[in-house]
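sanity check this:
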Amino acid sequence: MFAEERRDKIFELIKDGKAVAVNELCDIFNVSSSTIRRDLQQLEDSGLINRTHGGAVVAEGRKFEPSFIEKEKEHPNAKKKIAKQALELIEDGDTIILDAGTTTTELARLLEELSDLTIVTNATNIALELSTSKHQIILTGGILKKKTLAMVGPIAELNLRNLNPDKVFLGANGITLSDGLTTPDLVEANTKKAMLERAKEVIILADHSKFGETAFVKIAEIKDIDTIITDRDLNRETLKKFKENVEIILA
C-alpha cells in the first residue's frame, strides 16, 4: 500500500469520530509504530487530526467530504443547467474523460443526444448510466471509494497516463484564485491530476457554492484550466476576478 493511500485510510478511520491508538493502526496496516507516527504527524501538520498520547482524534471544526447521495441534494437545478451547457462543448467522435461527481453524472445522462463518443470514467455510477448507450465506455479501474462511487489510486492513474483524450470534464470541492482547484481526498486528488494532465482541454464543472472554498489537497492551479462552467448565482465580483484569469461560461 502506498503511503498516501495509507494516510487517507487512517484519516477515514479517525474522521468517523473514533479515537485510534498507534498500536491499533500498526495492526491494521501491518507497519511499524514509527511509520504510523510519521503518518499521524503529517496528518496533524495538515490540520486534519490532533495527536493524543498514544494515538489521534479528528481536529475540531474540520469539514468532511459529503457522500454522493448528500451531494445530489445540493443545488440540483444548477447542476442540470451546467451539464446542459457542457454538452455543447462535446462533438461526435470526441474522446472525453468524465470525472466522478454529481454534475458529471448529470452530463452523462445527456450524452444519448450524441453518438460515437469514447468515454473514459472513474465513476462506477456513470459507467452504469451509460452501459446501454451506443458509446464506447472505458473504466479506469482502481480502488473503489464507496462514499463517492469513484475509482481512485495508482491503478487508475497508471491507466489514465496511457490515454490521450480530447477533453476532461472535472469536478472539485473548492475553487479559489490563490489555492486553485482543491478536493478533500489525498488519493482522489492524484487521480484527478492524472486526468487533467492527459487531456488536451480541461473543463471544470462547478456550481457557485464551490467558489471561495478551499479543500485539503490542491489538484491544479487556475492557469492549468481552460474553461469553468458554473451557474448564474455566482457572485458578480467573484465572476469578474475569475474572468481575468480563466474562461468562465455561465449556464
Summary: The mean pLDDT is 90. The first helix runs from residue 3 to 15. DSSP finds ten helices and 15 strands in the chain. The first strand starts at residue 20 and ends at 21.
